[in-house]
Write a structure and sequence with these properties.
homodimer; about 450 residues; alpha/beta; Rossmann fold; 6-stranded parallel sheet; 16 helices; about 35% helix
Chain lengths: ~450, ~450
Amino acid sequence: MKRRNFIKSTSVLGAGALILPNSIFAKTAGLQRKVRLGFIGVGFRGQNHLNEMLKRNDVEIIAFADPDKRMIASAIEMLSKSSQKECQTYSADDYGYRKLLARDDIDAVFVSSPWSWHYRHGTEAMRSGKIVAMEVCGAMSLEECHGYVKTYEETKVPIMVMENVCYRRDVMAVLNMVKKGFFGELVHGQGGYEHDLRGVLFNDGETAYNSGVEFGEKGFSEAKWRTEHYLKRNGELYPTHGIGPLANMFDLNRGNRMLYLQSMSSKAVGLSKYIREHEKGGEQHPNANLSFNQGDVVTTQIKCANGETLMLTHDTSLQRPYNLGFRVQGTEGIWQDFGWGNNEQGLIYFEKKMDHDHRWKNTKEWLEKYDHPLWKRNARAAEKSGHGGMDYFVDNAFIECIKNDVEFPLDVYDLASWYAITPLSELSIREGGAPQNIPDFTNGKWRQRSNSFGSSNKY
Amino acid sequence: MKRRNFIKSTSVLGAGALILPNSIFAKTAGLQRKVRLGFIGVGFRGQNHLNEMLKRNDVEIIAFADPDKRMIASAIEMLSKSSQKECQTYSADDYGYRKLLARDDIDAVFVSSPWSWHYRHGTEAMRSGKIVAMEVCGAMSLEECHGYVKTYEETKVPIMVMENVCYRRDVMAVLNMVKKGFFGELVHGQGGYEHDLRGVLFNDGETAYNSGVEFGEKGFSEAKWRTEHYLKRNGELYPTHGIGPLANMFDLNRGNRMLYLQSMSSKAVGLSKYIREHEKGGEQHPNANLSFNQGDVVTTQIKCANGETLMLTHDTSLQRPYNLGFRVQGTEGIWQDFGWGNNEQGLIYFEKKMDHDHRWKNTKEWLEKYDHPLWKRNARAAEKSGHGGMDYFVDNAFIECIKNDVEFPLDVYDLASWYAITPLSELSIREGGAPQNIPDFTNGKWRQRSNSFGSSNKY
């Protein structure tokens, strides 16, 4: 599927609004108009994206929609310190985003809303002709995943899943080595989200991190909505940080695909203990006796069409150092990560290149030597960006793909299949570990689709 | 169940042969007679045990049984260099072990035979009143596991599962910290057997390691029989190195137990590639086109009665550094291993003891400080023993438990449940990942049984 077709089929919609990749000016020598952006959700994550966009001279901020007036005020404050003008805001209620989407002067939107709103925000944006940058999470239901694909196939409006860990420097260096064949034929991969979120899931309602034991109505920022999922659900709630990087290495939806998964959940003891032991909590605190459903450690095994196995771990409610726990293993190499992406935080081994010595090497030398061209070229631009520079790359890719009229490297099929891991893992756990088929959202196209992620040194 | 009961119920069998823990002299001031040993299987693993026994002055080597005359000759050679006299050998055919078991001057046997012989050797030994030191593997079938338990319960002749990794120095130091409560409430554990065995599974029929691509009749040592399992089976073939250490930490069969498991297997490409690329193999070698059934990486998720999850990995047919991949995670601590047990080959984190800094520490300082009393006391004795000293401890425990008239810390219920992982994982994989119940071999006694492993600093 070439972007050309997309342009043809949508160009009838009108030349006034740039609702499609700005192919009109991408074909000429330079940019003739900026990419006009709306933001649905300007909480801390939306503000990260806004921060990235404010550094650019090829975009224009048109509008924000968020019912949280404190967050809207922060976003306006950021804007006021920039060279961009003020913009329209929609914060009267939960549905202000519809007014934003009704505008005809917005090309693309960043969706950084609570998980349960992603589907409405994403699909309504596509239906209104706005290209979508969709923040990560897992789906609320499998039906949502089919809905994203259906909406895309009906509208042809592109949606990119904004998985920043795909752009982590060590991850991209390893991808580079995978593509060069250093790992031989891939056999097994691991990743996940192993991050102590207790201080994020609970706060005092004012200060976002480590400030208390409240959540929901009494919480602030993520504690307002994320914690509820831990109360009611039990599964691989946040699969994309793990599966995204693996997907690019294992060619998921592009020559390979996920066939089925089986999940298992440990008991849930971390969050209650946190509340009981917190200075603002204690045994008598009303939240101390809540029964959280989400197991502290949820592991998910995934079988791929080409015979590889993948393993994801969701581990966010216990004390622990941050570590997404990547492992990439093939017939000629193996990589094991134990940190947050610094180049010395991992072990690597290539039998042939290391003279069969059966000894792990620290990753530093290898990750430096095989630094991905995209990082090599853009490291300085990414220096002050969020999450160790990853945010620069994922946001840059979104804008550059629009400007250069090329397919997003992480598209609706990736989004649907990655998001699907969540409801399927929940079902597997409810059914005592029963394996669950993962739909082929590409409807067979995975066999022909090619893997373009990281193939450019520009985006 | 106290050993006292065992003594009472078996003492009628006759006072001539010391077929039970030598409680008769254990009750007196000192040893009055040595523990008399037979060896069923004197291949390299049996020779390791023999080597340990030859260092002791409290045992006597009575007989060897092994159909492999080359291995018998090696064992005799070892004996001749020791202070022990020569001993009887049974090597005429596969059933020489029955003549060994028929003797009335043997107290205990070491079984170090090919996996498919363990059941016959172990249960027939129990039925002949010989206390059993059983080498590790997984069962050929679930029926075998029930059979070990039935045989033990009928004969009351003890059998110890000789899992040496339970005695690895880092593993025991972590166990020590677990028992001290450093990890809080345990939630998740990982381990397995991640060891490149390609050079063991194939050889030239003469030299055991890395010497060729033959196996079965044309192979030597383990290649003679182990490789066949990779050809025909697909599962967690070797679960005990992983589950043993975890069992002691998670109180399996002693206040906790494994409820069910689900396994997944990757494709099998490592062994064929090895044969094709070996200088003595090649594309034209008859073994190059064999289709091995055993997946290169098999992962197994296990749910425990107390809500914890365990994960085992069997990964023995790809290039990789040795690493059993232990992880022990609780509400207050987490340990991650990445080597072969040296004290600096791991990462550890205890939130409260490390001032909430969210940074892994190298294990060295912690493993040294909390070195297990058993190791602290016996490190010098173990210095020249196999597998980094582990073999000293496991073999010493076997003999000392007999002499001191105490239950083996790793007993028939451990053996049955650990061995059961293999046939159940095979079934799970055959059934596309379907979860499989793990029988309660203790028949409810797991609730009362207490965990004695490592509780003595003598054995």
